[in-house]
Structures are given as C-alpha cells and as structure tokens.
Amino acid sequence: xxxxxxxxLRQLVDDYLAALRNEDxxxxxxxxxxLHDLGYTLCVxxxxxxxxxxxxxxxxxxxxxxxxxAS
Length: 71
Fold this sequence. Notes:
elongated, single chain
C-alpha cells in the first residue's frame, strides 16, 4: 500500500468533507466534479476503490501516524 504523507492525506480528507458540505458554494456541476476528483485522489492515495473505504483507511492511517508521533 502507498504511504501518503500525513499532511497531504489530512488536507485531502478535509477538502473532501468540505466539498460534501459544499463550503465553497460551488454550483452543483462544479461540486460534483470536485467530489469526483477528490474521491479519486483519496482512493489512489489509500489503495482503495471506494470513497467510503478510502476515508476509513485514511482515518486509521492518520490515527496511527498521530499516535506514532506522540510516542
């Protein structure tokens, strides 16, 4: 599996969740494209084929990295 840089992955997750909430006030088409692009990048970065699985893997990876950094 790829090991993305934690800062990059955190930003990617944050951007995806912000796009879901439509915090950028994008039009529906632009929002859909942004979600698609971010979802694809999340999947590639986490080695998954599904956005929900990518978000879960990212959460676990980031949690591991945070606990490792705290040690």
